């Protein structure tokens, strides 16, 4: 069997058709899978020494979220270095990155594998991978035919990247300049909510506007702040982080604005605050809603006039700092309740961003599961980590009160449990490896029954407090310790719930 001119023309036409890049690439690999009779095909984008899937066919959905570092995948490294068609022998000792990731054949190894590196002006921009269970699956196709396919795909991918660059919107996961491990800063997700969030980040990042990032605990607000800073004109300057919730009141002012020697007991030398450290750069104030009202007033002055005073110093210092703030509280309600200054709120929320909770992100759950599987595989030194389709269904159905952070921990814990049950370097995650209940099984809060009156001598206030304490603890237990979810279940504002918990001695 060989590729006819008609079939090659069909590929070319589909790559030039007036549909989105994502759909175009999906149709390309779907066509290739049919034409070449392969069991799986994938189009990968190359950047920063790793491949990331743009479109897949015949592979588990979670593959789209995986990031294949060349250092951890020798077959992909061989494709990246080859410069031409690569045919791996059926008995190759190099592990295939898709072993265990073909639905229905998780226990089988891929036997036939062809890699087509994609170039633009001699620069590697991606790869096409073709895999099959039959060792002789691609023997009838010549290298020249495969080179034609690679050339067509490379042209389409390069055009897509150029168009996205000109439009200023990163719809494809195109490269961003990041320091350190790129995977630690990447925002994984193709859901409508995440695409909209990425668009808004691309709009506001080049400006110097202050940004208020809101979202539940564990949704990835810090990643949003990093993305804004990386795409801003201050990217080569520091991004300074401060968790306002972890600031003791006694040192909060010094942490923000610094102090001079002798300003208070223990001030043995001059010390710069976070604002000075972030001068010309960006200051990320996490959990901004936890700042006290007096400190809010001092923060407002810096935002208004751009000058600050170290604790114990009469002199003013000028600073040029962009503020990114994050909160899991409803700050508008906090303003109405008198717990947050309205003028500071308006200064911070010049451009508000909202990070969607994981339960509203659909198939992003599978992508993130794949991303964390690959990270855990490398961390634990495993050959492969796959998720069965029933396990993926369970992950999609779960409510995820702890959002992405909870998913990451659940994946890592499941891998450890699966490996303990079946020792080996290849791990397949099944539903039993996850201590999760699907969303349908999560019951709404039931009112606690009071079958008898309080004991003699117990006041009405004490009895009421005891009832509230029981109710709050039960809601927190059902939500896995997530305060926002507990507040939603109880029908109260999360800030008010925090204050109630402090009064009742729970927090």
From TrEMBL:
Disulfide bond is among the record's keywords: no
InterPro entries referenced in this protein's UniProt entry, alphabetically: AAA+_ATPase, AAA_lid_NorR, GAF, GAF-like_dom_sf, Homeodomain-like_sf, HTH_Fis, P-loop_NTPase, Sigma_54_int
Chain ranges of the Sigma-54 factor interaction domain: 187-416
Pfam family, one: AAA_lid_14
PROSITE patterns documented for this protein: SIGMA54_INTERACT_1, SIGMA54_INTERACT_3, SIGMA54_INTERACT_4
Any one GO molecular function term: sequence-specific DNA binding
Gene3D superfamilies: 1.10.8.60, 3.30.450.40, Homeodomain-like, P-loop containing nucleotide triphosphate hydrolases
Alphabetically ordered keywords of this record: ATP-binding, DNA-binding, Nucleotide-binding, Transcription, Transcription regulation
CDD domains linked to this entry: AAA
UniProt KW Nucleotide-binding keyword: yes
GO biological process: regulation of DNA-templated transcription
UniProt name for this protein: Nitric oxide reductase transcriptional regulator NorR
């Amino acid at each position: 069997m060989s590729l006819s001119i008609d079939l090659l023309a069909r590929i070319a036409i589909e790559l030039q058709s007036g549909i989105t890049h994502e759909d175009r690439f999906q149709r390309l690999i779907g066509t290739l899978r049919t034409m070449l009779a392969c069991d799986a095909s994938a189009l990968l984008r190359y950047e920063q020494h790793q491949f990331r899937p743009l479109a897949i066919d015949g592979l588990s959905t979670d593959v789209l979220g995986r990031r294949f570092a060349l250092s951890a995948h020798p077959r992909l490294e061989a494709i990246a270095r080859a410069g031409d068609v690569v045919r791996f022998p059926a008995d190759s000792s190099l592990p295939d990155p898709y072993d265990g990731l073909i639905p229905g054949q998780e226990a089988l190894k891929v036997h036939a594998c062809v890699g087509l590196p994609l170039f633009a002006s001699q620069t590697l921009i991606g790869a096409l991978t073709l895999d099959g269970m039959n060792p002789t699956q691609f023997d009838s196709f010549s290298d020249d035919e495969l080179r034609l396919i690679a050339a067509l795909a490379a042209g389409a991918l390069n055009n897509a990247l150029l168009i996205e660059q000109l439009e200023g919107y990163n719809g494809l996961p195109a490269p961003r300049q990041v320091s350190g491990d790129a995977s630690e800063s990447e925002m994984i997700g193709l859901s409508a909510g995440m695409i909209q969030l990425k668009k808004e980040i691309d709009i506001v990042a080049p400006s110097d506007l202050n940004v208020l990032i809101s979202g539940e605990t564990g949704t990835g607000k810090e990643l949003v702040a990093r993305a804004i800073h990386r795409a801003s004109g201050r990217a080569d300057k520091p991004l300074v982080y401060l968790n306002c919730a972890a600031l003791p009141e006694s040192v909060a002012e010094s942490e923000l604005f610094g102090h001079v020697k002798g300003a208070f007991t223990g001030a043995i030398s001059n010390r710069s605050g976070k604002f000075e450290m972030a001068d010309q750069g960006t200051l990320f104030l996490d959990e901004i809603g936890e700042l006290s009202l007096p400190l809010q007033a001092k923060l407002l002055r810096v935002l208004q006039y751009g000058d600050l005073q170290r604790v114990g110093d009469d002199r003013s210092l000028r600073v040029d700092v962009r503020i990114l703030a994050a909160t899991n509280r409803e700050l508008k309600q906090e303003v109405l309740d008198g717990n947050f200054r309205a003028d500071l709120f308006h200064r911070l929320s010049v451009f508000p961003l909202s990070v969607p909770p994981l339960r509203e992100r659909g198939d992003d759950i599978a992508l993130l599961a794949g991303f964390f599987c690959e990270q855990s595989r490398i961390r634990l030194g495993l050959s492969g980590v796959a998720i069965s389709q029933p396990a993926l269904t369970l992950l999609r159905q779960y409510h995820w009160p702890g959002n992405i952070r909870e998913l990451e921990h659940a994946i890592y814990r499941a891998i450890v449990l699966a490996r303990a049950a079946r020792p080996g370097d290849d791990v397949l995650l099944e539903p039993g490896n996850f201590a999760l209940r699907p969303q349908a099984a999560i019951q709404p809060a039931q009112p606690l029954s009071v079958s008898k009156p309080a004991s003699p001598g117990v006041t009405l206030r004490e009895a009421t407090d005891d009832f509230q304490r029981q109710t709050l603890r039960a809601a927190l237990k059902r939500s896995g310790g997530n305060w926002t979810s507990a507040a939603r279940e109880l029908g109260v504002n999360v800030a008010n719930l925090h204050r109630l918990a402090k009064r009742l001695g729970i927090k």
